[in-house]
């Protein structure tokens, strides 16, 4: 929730979009350069995939950090590649950056990955931008000022029936946790309309904002995965639950959750009744 003393969030949205767009162009160029004339099948081998992710993540995050150092030198930055960063001081703006979200899609030639840039103040979201390098689509939001896809306002789904809902989720890299997540999904699968595992949490949240999917949940996401997308979903009218911020609502401390306003309660109940304690 925005505080009355917070700065105008619009310029932060504009800057987040500008920087994420520039990094998105770089993400494609890096993939082209590292992959060269290798086939997508070669790329998917572990070492090549690691090369392209490492180069893409590093170079894009370095670019974002460089631009922020020029334009917002007093702000804090938390990035996936930056290691542990000191907590921001009270009143200090923090940028939360995933240089490439959806890295498995990025390495395998699937077009669904993003550069995600969120902006927060004292733990409250101010603005966010999620840019898709392949399509060039730009998702963005500013706190209290709505969410947009390429400038057009977004609205989350009005569906209220879990049995008809298309629900997105994600799976961890850790195989043991992935197994527990798959077991949870199996427990709810026959009670929902359909399932998507799109491979990019920021764009899952944007998909909720657009009503392309009715709801989304995932356990174990990091702040850079959800910072921008959660605000975009929220500003589009979705009910959003960020991990680690709620005492115990029975969804599991590490749950990120977003759903259209009429679906949120029944979908959350379904997850609770399926048992999320071990996920
Ligand atoms: C991953 C993606 C994926 C989600 C994973 C994330 P990365 O981020 O967002 O959809 O299921 O939990 O780690 O590694 O591609 O930046
Ligand atoms: Ca990510």
From TrEMBL:
Keyword Transmembrane helix: no
Highest taxon in the source lineage: Bacteria
Region feature Disordered, mapped onto this chain: 71-92
The enzyme's E.C. designation: 3.1.3.25
PROSITE patterns: IMP_1
Alphabetized InterPro entries for the sequence: IMPase (IPR033942), Inositol_monoP_metal-BS (IPR020583), Inositol_monophosphatase-like (IPR000760)
Keywords: Hydrolase, Magnesium, Metal-binding
Pfam families for the chain: Inositol_P (PF00459)
MF (Gene Ontology): hydrolase activity
Catalytic activity: a myo-inositol phosphate + H2O = myo-inositol + phosphate
Cofactor(s) the record lists: Mg(2+)
Family in the record: Belongs to the inositol monophosphatase superfamily.
UniProt-listed PANTHER family: INOSITOL MONOPHOSPHATASE (PTHR20854), INOSITOL-1-MONOPHOSPHATASE-RELATED (PTHR20854:SF4)
Protein name: Inositol-1-monophosphatase
């Amino acid at each position: 929730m925005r505080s009355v003393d917070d700065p105008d969030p619009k310029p932060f949205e504009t800057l987040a979009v500008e920087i994420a767009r520039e990094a998105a162009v770089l993400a494609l160029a890096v993939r082209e350069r590292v992959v060269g004339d290798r086939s997508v099948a070669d790329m998917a081998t572990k070492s090549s995939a690691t090369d392209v992710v490492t180069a893409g993540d590093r170079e894009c995050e370095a670019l974002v950090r460089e631009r922020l150092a020029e334009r917002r030198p007093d702000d804090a930055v938390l990035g996936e590649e930056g290691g542990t960063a000191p907590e921001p001081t009270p009143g200090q703006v923090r940028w939360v950056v995933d240089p490439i979200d959806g890295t498995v899609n990025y390495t395998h030639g699937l077009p669904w990955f993003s550069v995600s840039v969120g902006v927060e103040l004292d733990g409250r979201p101010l603005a966010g931008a999620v840019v898709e390098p392949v399509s060039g689509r730009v998702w963005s939001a500013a706190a209290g000022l709505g969410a947009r896809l390429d400038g057009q306002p977004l609205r989350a789904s009005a569906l209220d029936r879990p049995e008809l809902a298309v629900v997105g989720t994600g799976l961890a890299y850790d195989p043991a946790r992935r197994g527990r997540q798959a077991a949870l999904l199996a427990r709810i699968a026959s009670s929902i309309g359909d399932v998507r595992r799109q491979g990019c949490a920021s764009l899952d949240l944007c998909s909720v904002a657009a009503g392309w999917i009715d709801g989304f949940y995932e356990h174990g996401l990091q702040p850079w995965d959800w910072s921008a997308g959660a605000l975009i979903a929220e500003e589009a009218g979705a009910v959003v639950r960020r991990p680690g911020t709620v005492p115990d609502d029975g969804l599991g401390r590490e749950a990120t959750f977003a759903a259209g306003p009429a679906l949120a309660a029944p979908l959350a109940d379904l997850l609770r009744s399926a048992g999320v304690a071990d996920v």
